[in-house]
Amino acid sequence: MVHDDGFEPRLGKIRSLGGRRGRKYLHRVLQATNLAKGGSGSSRKSRFSGSRIGRGAGIGRVLAARDRYAAYRRRRVVIKSRIVKLAGKGLQGARAHLRYIQRDGVTRDGRPGQLYDAAHDQVDGRAFLDRAEGDRHQFRFIVSAEDGAQYEDLKPLVRRLMARMEEDLGTRLDWVAVDHYNTGHPHSHVIVRGKEDRGRDLIIARDYITTGMRERAAEIVGLDFGPRSDFEIEDRLRQEVEQERLTSLDRALLRDVGPNGLVSAVDADAFRQSLRAGRLRKLERLGLAEEIRPGRWHLTEGLEDTLRRTGERGDIIKTMHRAMTERGVARAATEYVIDDPAQARPIVGRVVARGLSDEINDRHYLIVDGIDGYFHYVDIGAGQSVEPLPEGAIIRVESRRTEARPVDRTVAEIAATYDGRYSVDIHLQHDSTASQDFAESHVRRLEAMRKLTGTVAREPDGTWIIAPDHLERAAEFERRQAKDRPVAVTSLSSLPLERQVTADGATWLDRELLSVTPEALRDAGFGREVRDALVQRRQWLIAENLARQDQDRVVFRAGLLDTLRRRELARVAGQLSGEPGAGLCGGGQRRAHRRRLSPCPRPGQRPLRADREKPGVHPGAMAAGAGAPSWSAGVRDHARGRDFLGHRAAEGRAGGGVRGVTIEWQFTIRNGRMAGG
């Protein structure tokens, strides 16, 4: 039986655990804070984001914490930023970027852009890059104010912004800038060295780059033009009602979506309610909203992404329409095609324009007038991925394959046989028919994968460790490559279509006439132009006795392309010698597989430029001093495996010189390579 007599009192506060020392007040505050957060401090760890690392972190966080409704009053400024590493080929890319922002046609009067800095209106870009030699990185910014068109000169705005940045970051900045007026929104490209004034690496906090710079620029523009008036704000909001892009009205609607997934058009302010109702009706016409009951609307899932893509599409169509208008081409809007590089079928057509879709990331696009009768917009990725193409050139655009290549399958097969190891010696041992060069091409492929993705490892003795899933890793490598190079562009002809009709050389039109499977031509747009050009080219070939009409068909002379290439070679040789119509020395006679080229260029004569038709072939140019021509690939086509010999007789000149001296050179073309002496 339990007795209640055994009772021992414990003195202390209610719910006290009876410790000899009570908990500190700080501990109780921390416990209450954790309970308010919905959990204990020990179960939730803070995540390190790195946003406070670098200069300007505190200022950036303060500027980012302003009231969101202040955006309606504040002048808007867009700043795009990018940090570029200069290691490896980064400095070459920096030089190319500097040349690009100084290109022709970016000023109001169409002249090249001019670099400037804090103190000078004209600075030397080479000197800036020389100072950047050895820098780890550089910053690139694009500053575009909504009211930029009202500035007569953007230099004061940029200089004041950079001076304010120096105050915020606590260091002097070494920078150059160029102003561009060739778009609907004037903007400035600013390049900042990645070094502080004391020579250390310049690290700018993330918050300052993403928010602080924009707020500082908006402050400066606001001082110049003052805050927006009520009339300006209301007018901009009215314009947003009918826009087919993501607007501030859409963001407000998305914030007000209730737990049931519905949003109301009702607002306490009559003007705001009319805006919301009008915007919801516009979204309904776009198929992005549905009125469930009067005043209550359901928004389609993915509304924000859909409107953003629609806005980008609208910008692209405006770009295409502007390019067509400048060239006097009239096409219906239904013939505009925005190709997806991952799913696009091959496109054959002429280059209409090339431009930048993303200046800060150096993303380029091509506008191609296709033989299918449509006007194509193609994202070609990084600028260096596609060689410069003249306007009017005939090209083929194909999606880049993103699966493993045959070289990857060969490596995987050999590695599977030799315990996951690969090397040139192992390859030659495995396949006795393989050559040294063929095996080394596999090593170059592995080296490229190692540098970009690190998915393969190389041992000190040159042996490669190949994982069992090598083919999957190779496919992932191709997908990463396709981000910068989504398409493969092949030049079919550098000559415009109209010049190919009467070109005295092999052309793309000739290859189409002789092809067993010619390109399918639509009887509209550029396809119709190509059909007409093919008819005219046939007539020209008949007039030149290179083809004949046989009842209802045209019979071409055997070896037509070779004949045209020889005629072109003779014409180019005549241009180089300054004697049009001159051919090869000795009437083209062959002497023990040796052909003598003449007439020889005269001393000091500047060569004439000849437009080459062969894809990827550039005109021959005179070698400095000796006057030896650098023969183009047109020679290779019909003289592969033969020796060529040329000579130049140096003539006497007034005031001295050498008489009677003959300079000779020769080269041999074998396996696509040229060796000379």
Structural class: alpha+beta
Please tell me the overall pLDDT.
Answer: 78
How do the strands line up in the largest sheet?
A: 8-11-10-9-12-16
Q: Distance N terminus to C terminus?
A: 120 Å
Number of helices: 19
Largest sheet data:
6 strands, mixed
Structure, described:
The protein is α+β, with helices and mostly antiparallel strands. The protein is built from 19 helices and 22 strands.
Task: Lay out the secondary structure.
Elements: H1 25-37, H2 57-64, E1 77-85, H3 90-101, H4 125-131, E2 137-145, H5 155-169, E3 175-180, E4 187-193, H6 206-225, H7 230-240, H8 248-255, E5 262-264, H9 270-285, E6 289-293, E7 296-299, H10 303-326, E8 336-338, E9 347-358, E10 363-370, E11 375-382, E12 394-399, H11 406-417, E13 421-422, H12 424-430, H13 436-452, E14 457-458, E15 464-465, H14 470-484, E16 487-493, H15 497-500, H16 508-514, H17 525-543, E17 547-550, E18 553-556, H18 560-577, E19 594-597, H19 633-639, E20 643-650, E21 661-670, E22 673-676
Parallel strand pairs: 8-11, 19-20
Antiparallel strand pairs: 1-2, 2-4, 3-4, 5-7, 6-7, 9-10, 9-12, 10-11, 12-16, 13-15, 14-15, 17-18, 20-21, 21-22
Helix pairs in contact: 2-6, 5-6, 16-17, 18-19
